[in-house]
Amino acid sequence: MDLHSYASAGVDIARAESFVERLKQRARRAGHDNLWKGAGGYACVVPVSGDQAVALTTDGVGTKLLVACQLNRHDTIGTDLVAMCANDLICVGARPTAFLDYYAVGSLSDEQADCVIQGIIAGCDLAGMILAGGETAEMPGLYGEGHYDLAGFAIGQVSRDGLITGEAIKAGQKLIGVASSGIHSNGLSLARKILAGDRRRLEELLTPTLIYVRPVLSLLEEKDSCVTGIAHITGGGWRNLFRLNGTVGYHIDNPLPVPDIFRQLSACVEEAEMYRTFNMGMGLCLITAGEAGRVVDAFRSHGFAAQQVGLVTDRAKTLTMKDSAVILGD
Amino acid sequence: MDLHSYASAGVDIARAESFVERLKQRARRAGHDNLWKGAGGYACVVPVSGDQAVALTTDGVGTKLLVACQLNRHDTIGTDLVAMCANDLICVGARPTAFLDYYAVGSLSDEQADCVIQGIIAGCDLAGMILAGGETAEMPGLYGEGHYDLAGFAIGQVSRDGLITGEAIKAGQKLIGVASSGIHSNGLSLARKILAGDRRRLEELLTPTLIYVRPVLSLLEEKDSCVTGIAHITGGGWRNLFRLNGTVGYHIDNPLPVPDIFRQLSACVEEAEMYRTFNMGMGLCLITAGEAGRVVDAFRSHGFAAQQVGLVTDRAKTLTMKDSAVILGD
User: Within an 8 Å CB–CB cutoff, is residue A59 touching chain B?
Assistant: First the structure.
């Protein structure tokens, strides 16, 4: 059987990363020095007044949109959009406050638009954000019949003391994994290609991305939370952990259960590619310098499955797994 | 000759407005009371700390994108994107600080992407904003060959004292019009339809939207600036003035020169439709309770053509013009 890869599904990550690098070089000019550095670049942090700053992020839901269009089910894709932004904000320690959507269509359908907005509002409620505004663009000629695109923009508030920079991550600290609800909103181009004929699985792909805001804020608001890093597992899969701190690595010896959908995909995809494309059952990963149980309990009390999954190591930018030959490096 | 209208070009404004109204109803819930009210809803204003707030806005460039694609010229469309956001922020009195872009393509082309980013960076420089981040999404299957979409998100900073609410606009105050560079980024679906075969005019459509940040900030930073309202003339044309204050109207007795491109379009479009679709040569309109000359000079000293164009009247939500039967009402 031919193995699939993310590149074979039409997404050229290397090209995209080289573009983003060039972009960073060009954008790095006067003014950037004033930004605070948040862990992993999940959000940029703009100081506003004294020790208060706002964190900003933008994201989309990728080709999960095309699954929604194919199945004509649009009521939860807006929740994914909010999740992708809100989960990024909490990675730098920010409390999400306001959300804006960009909704572009070829021709506006009341029914579709109402469904999309319903999902956005549900997501904002879960994330504690106000849907503060947005742009609805009608662009005949750019989008095909029934197609649309969605982009989200979210801001959160963070104090200098509350900012998570990732600098305090050290070997020996504990990794807590929090379960995903499935594929979330990354790797869909590859998944769609493999599951194209399987309607039940396509429907499963639409399960909304979990929003981790409430348990994370409840943790961060405790005195001495001991949380030193938070990684939202998005595009790039478990490699997202490498974003937090360039001097450490990770060893996973007690992974969360891998949902069936990833087992089905893994029949067609090389194992390392699975871990660098999908969340593999772990939607969020926290690092704590304190008791693992305290973090685990915070999530469980909010209804999320969580457990200690491993430890921080001193093997820089290397991720190893017990009982697996897969080694991810940067 | 058949007259064209915006609706005949495939853009149903009434449907879009009814959707936005429903959206507002649904989004208006706990939390919205905490937002400050900025004039015209050009940006939403989220308080951060004490008397400091951030203003947020999102916008796109509509089907100006399709002109860029048709002519394969992508070096200034990013400037339009920044302009659409930055000019909205200044309407509430905010100083633009940071910008994020969402750039979605079917398949990433280095050359096209570099051109797009070049325009975004040029725009950010003109607007005094940092390009703080962004999202580049590769979505095979959603966008046609060479097509892409762009959304911009911008934040600015504003103090309680500096917020422009529009409430101080009164009959008798002066209207200052600032020249546009042409069609800017609205009404393109209609313009493209009419000018489809005219390559020179299509090239002219790509003239970048002017960025009015510098002269506006220099004005607002003066003591007692006397500016009571600022309208960015975008979708809806001169009807944008009605957004600022529901109790007043406007009389235009000394309009800015109407650029040739609008004269050509007006051969195919009813006159009132021209004024409610296009900027008709006026990209920004300010209202002052002080001396018109002071506002005019601020723009001229920054190289923008500006003049007093009319007066605020007490005929609520009505716009009249000297020597014209056109009356715009809300």
Answer: yes
